[in-house]
Queue: 3 jobs
Job 1
Amino acid sequence: MDRQKKPTKPKRPKITLEPWQNSKIEPYIVLKNLSKNYDGVPAVQDCTLDIYEGEFYSLLGASGCGKSTLLRLLAGFEKPSSGKLFIGGQDMTHVPSYNRPVNMMFQSYALFPHMSVEQNIAFGLKQEGLPREEIKNRVYEVLDLVQMSRFSKRHPNRLSGGQQQRVALARSLVKRPKLILLDEPMAALDQKLREETQFELVNIQEKVGITFIMVTHDQEEAMTMSSRLAIMEEGWIQQIGTPHEIYEFPNSAYVADFIGSINLFEGVITGVTKEMVNIKCPMLSHTLSVPTNTTVPIGGSVTVAVRPEKLEIGIDKPTYKHNWEEGIIEDIGYYGDMSIYHVKLPSGQTVMASLLNLDRISIQQLTWNQSVYVSWQPENSIILTT
C-alpha cells in the first residue's frame, strides 16, 4: 500500500533588499548636517545623506542649487562651514583632498594636450612612484575596460569628445579609488553620443564596483543612470529616492515639476471616504477623485499632480463623472515616437497629454483647434502637500 506523500509547502522567493533597505549594511559615505557658506550666503544647507558602496548616486538640480559645491566638499576641495563627512567609517571632514580615497572626473576632462592617452592615464601613478611594469599593466587594464587600447598613442586633440571622456574616466579608475566623483560628465557630448555613453558608463561602474557620485542638471541622464538620486533646491535636499520613487511619488510640487513634465491642479478637499478623496478644483468643472493617501483634513488645500502620459485624450466623452474635462488642442509637439498635446481648458489652464505614435498613420488623427476630452484614472493622481 503506497503512502501518500505530504504536500510540500511552496518555497517563498527570496526578497533581495537594496543596501539602503537593509539595516545590517552600513553606508559607505555619511553626510551629517553638512553646510557651506560663502561670505554668509548659504550654498549647501544642512545636508544629511547616506550613500552605500557600489551605488551610482546622482545629485540633481538646477544651476546654482548647490550640487557642485556638495561634490567639492566630498572631494575635499572645499571645507564645510559646519557638519560632518565620513567615508568608509572615517571622519574626513577636515582631511585634505590628496589624503582621501577619492578621484574626480571634471567636466572639461582636464587632459594634458602634450601627452598621449597612455601618458595621461599613467601620470598619477608615476607621481606615486609605482614600478614601471605595474604602471604599464594597470594602464592597459583600464584602457581595455574603456575600450581605448587602440588609441593609446594618440593625443587628446585627435580624439572625439566621447573618446576624451573615456580617457578621463580611465585616468580616474587607474588609481583604484573607493569613490569617483563625476562633475557633469556628459555636458560636452552631443545628444546621440550622450545617450550611448550613459549605458557604457553604467556598465563600467557595475564591472569595477566603485561608488560613483554624479552631479548633473539633466533629469533624463540622472533617471537613466542612477541607483538613487537626491533632488536639490537652493542648497537644500528636497527628496531622496530611486528614479521610480522620485518620478511616481514626488513629495513636493518642486520635485514633481522638475522631474519630467507634470500637470498641477490646486484645490480644496471636500470629502474623504475609505477609498477616495474628493477635491474641488477651480480650474476644472468636475471634481477630482484621488485614492485616500493623505492626512490633510476636509477643507485643506492640496496640489494634485498628473503626468502627461497618464492622461487619456480623445474625441469620445468619458463615461465616469470624475477626473475629466473638455478642451481645445492648442499646440502639438511631435517627437517621433510620441506626441505631446497642449489642451486649453475652459478655465484657461493648459494641460499636457502624451500619446505614443504606434501607427505610422493614426486611426484617430488629432489636430490643432480640435475639441477633445482629457481624462485620467484616480490612481494616476498624486497629492502633493509639502
Note: The chain has two domains: 19-254, 261-384.
Job 2
Amino acid sequence: MDKTKITLKEKIGYGLGDAASSIFWKLFGMYLLFFYTDVFGIEAGIVGTMFLLTRVWDSLFDPIVGLISDRTETKWGKFRPYLLWMAVPFGVIGVLTFTTPDLGTTGKIIYAFVTYSLMMMIYSLINVPYASLLGVISSNPKERTELSSYRMIFAFLGSILALVLIDPLVNFFSGAEENVKLGWSMTTVVFAIIAVVFFLCTFWWTKERIRPIKESQNSLKEDIMDLLKNRPWWILLGAGVSALIFNSIRDGAAVYYFKYYAIAPESFNLGIFGSALSLTTIYLVLGQISNILGILLVTPISNKIGKRQTYLFAMIFATVFSIVFYFLGKDNIAMMLILQIVISACAGSIFPLLWSMYADIADYSEWRTGRRATGLIFSSSSMSQKFGWSIGGALTGWLLAIWGYQANIIQTEEALHGIRLMLSLLPAAGTLLSVLFIYFYPLTELKLKEITSDLDTKRERK
C-alpha cells in the first residue's frame, strides 16, 4: 500500500470529476422535468412514469458496473480507466438528451426515453468507478472525509456554474428569434465540453494506492452475499435514498414554485451575455453556495462529534426548517431565500459524510470477510442516489399531474398548493426518514479506528 501523502493537486483532480457530473446532475434534477413539460411538450404524468422506469433500471445497473469495475485490471488501475473511456460518450449523450427533434407526441416520448436511458447508463459507467476511487486513493478515514469534502465542494461549484449560466446561455443561443429549443441544445454543448475536460483531468491527476489483502478474484456470489449481510450498508442505503427523495423533490419543484407561485420581479439585473438572472436562478445558486458552506463545516464538526451524530443533527434541522417553509406567503421572498440557505447548508453537510461512510463500510466488509469489493459497495451509494432520485422525480411529475398542473397557464389553487407541498412538507418527510435510518448506524469512530489499524497491519504483512 502506497502511504504517500495526498497532494493538493490530486484533491483538486478528484474534485473536478464530481464538478463534471454535477453540471449534468443539476440539469437533470432541477430542469429536466421542466424542459420536458414546458420546452419539449410532454405531459408531466408521462415524464414522471418515464423517470421512474428509466431511473429504477439505471439504479439496478449501478451494481453491475461496480462488479465489472472491481474485476477490471489495467496499467491505470481498476477505476480510473472508465474516466478516460466514458468521458466523450458522456458529453455526446448529454447533448442528445437536451436536443428536441420535430416529432409527434409518441415520437417525442420514445426519443426522450431512449436518450435519457442511454444518458443514465453512461452516467453509471463513469460515476460508479469515479466514486469508487475514494476507497483506493487513501485508507485514512479522516483523509477520506477531506477528499470527500473536496469532491462535494467541487460538485457544488459545478452546480453553481451550471445554474448561473443556464438562463444567460439559453437566452444567448436562442437569439433574436427566441428559438428556445436551439438555446437549450447549444447550452448543453458548452456544458458537455467542460464536463469532458474535467473528467480527463481527474483521470490524469489521481492515483489508485490501496490494494486488497486478498488478491484472488472473489466469486460474484461471495461479493453479493457479503453485501447483503452487511448491516451498516443497509442502514446507509436507507438513509441515502431518503435524503435523495428530499433533495430531488425540492430541486424538481423549485422552477415551478417561482414561475407560478412566488410574487417577485421576473429577473434581476445581474446578467451575463446581456441577460438578467431570474429569481429561480438566484434561489438555486444560493442553495449551492449554502451547500458548500455545509461542506466546509462538516469536517471540523464530524472530527469533534463523529460522522453519525453530525449527519443526525443536520437532517433534524433540515426537517424542522422544511416544515417552516410551508407557512411562507407568496410574497415573502426574503424568508424563502433565508430558509433556502439554512436548509441547503444542512443538506450539503451530509453528502461528504455519506461518501466517506461508504468507504468506511468497504473497510468494514474487508475486515469482516477478508474480501474487498470497493466497486460494488460504492455502486450501492450511486444506486441509493438513483433510487431516491427516481422516487422523488417520479413523485414530482405524478403529483403535478394529480394536482392538475398544465404548462404555461395560470395554475389552479390545488396545483399551487401541491407545488408548495413539494418545497416543504414532502421533503421534510424524506429527511425525517433519513434521521430514523442513521440513528441505528453502528460504525462509530472508535470502531473504525480498530478496523483501520487491523487492516493496515494485515496489508503490511503481505
Note: The first strand starts at residue 267 and ends at 268.
Job 3
Amino acid sequence: MLPAAVVSGIYQEWADMVEILVAALITIVIGGLAWRYGRQAQLTTKEGFAIVGLAWIFVVLFGTLPYIVTSTLDGVTNAFFESSAGFTTTGASVISQPENIGHGVVFWRATSQWLGGMGIIVLSIAILPLLGVGGVELARAESPGPRPDRLTPRFKETAKRLWFIYVLFTLAEALLLWAGDMTLFEAISHSFTTLSTGGFSTTSESLGGFSAYAQWVVIVFMLLAGMSFALHYRGLRKPTEYSRDAELKIYGAVIAAASVVAIIGIWGGGVGRTVRDGVFTVVSIVTTTGYATADFSLWPGALGIMVVGLMFVGGMAGSTAGAVKTYRIGVLTRASLADIRRVIHPHGVFPVRLGGKKVPESIVQSVQAFFLFYMFLFMTGTFVFGVFSSAIGPDLDFVSAASAVASALGNVGPGLGAVGPTSTYLEVTALGKWVLSGLMIAGRLEIFPIVLLFTRELWRR
C-alpha cells in the first residue's frame, strides 16, 4: 500500500495519501503481531493448502482498507468485491469511472492485480527466508496448473526466476505503452494489469479509449502473460523450447481459430478495426484478462456462446491466467479419445499422451477431478447467484447470471448482458457480490484450497 500512498503524494492528493498510509499502518501492525507471535514449523501438504486458502482470504480482507478509508467505495461488500477482483486478477469491478477516483487508489487496484498475478505466496517464498520451510507445499496450493514447474531443485530459486521474468515483461510493456499515447502512470498501471491478466484499466472505456498501437502492444503482452512463465524462462535462453511445447500449440490453435471466427462474425466497417477488435477480444477472454475494446455482449448470439465457452479455456499452466487451462483441456480431450477407443477395443491399452509424452494416470485423474469440481461450482454458483439476484434485487436474465459466474470462476471479469464489458457489477445484490467474490478466490486458487477449508479431514490432527 505504501507505493500507492506515494502516488497520491505525487499527484498532491494529500487526503488520500494520509488515509492510505493509515490503511498501511493497520496492516503493518496486525501483520507484525502475527509475525512476532507466530512460529516456524515444517508444513505438510494438508497444512500448506489450509495456509494458502486462509492467507488469501485475509489478504483480500486487508486489501479492502484503501477503498474503505478513502471512502472510494461504500460498505464492506463493495470493497471486498473490488479487493477480491484485484488480487484474483478478475477484471470485474463496482467502480464505473476509475478516472474520477484518486490516482493512489487506481494504483492500488493495479498493484493488487500485479501481486496476485504471479502469486503472493510465491513472492513470499522468493523474498522471505523464513518461508523456505514448506515452500513447495505452499507453492503447490497456490500455483496455477496441475503442479508447479520447478526450474531448479529449490523452489525458492524457481520463484525468484519466475518473478524476474514477470518484472522484466512488466517493465518492457510499460516502456512500450509510454512510447505511445499513454502517460507514465497509465502505462505502468496497464502493464501491471496486463501481465497479471487482471484487466483493471484507468478509464471506463478500458483499452477502447487508447490508440491502435497501444491495443496491439497489449495484445502481445496478454499473449505472453497467458503462456507459462517457466517456459518463458527456458525459451529466452533457448528459443527452440517454444516450438517444442505441446501445450503452447494448443494455446495458439485455440486463439487462432477463435479469432478467425470472431472476425468473420463481426465483419463490417473498417478492416483494421474489425480484425483488431476480434483478435483483442479473443485474446483478452482466453487469457482471462478482461480488457475490452468492443462491447462483445452485443455481438451475434453464436459469438456470445463462443465468448462464454472461451471463459472456461484459460491460458497455459504456469501462466497468470485463470480458468481450466489449456494443459487440462488437452489432457481431457486425449483421455476422452482414449476412453472411446477402449469402448471399441475393450482389451486394448491406450495411454494418454500429450506432445508425444505419456501423461501419468495420477495426473489424468487429478485433471478429471478438477474439471468435475469446476463444472459443479459453475452450475451451483449459477443457481445460487440467480436465486439471490432474483429474490432480493434486480432480476438478472439467465445469460447474465451464467456468464457472471463463469467469468468470476475463470477470473475473467466482464460477462454478457447486464454485466457486459461496458457495465459494472455495482447493481448486483450484496449477497450476489459475496457469492461472486467467493468464486473469484476459489477460481484463482484452483478450487481445492478453498473447498478443503470446509472439510473435516483438513482440521483433524
Note: The chain is about 65% helix and 0% strand.
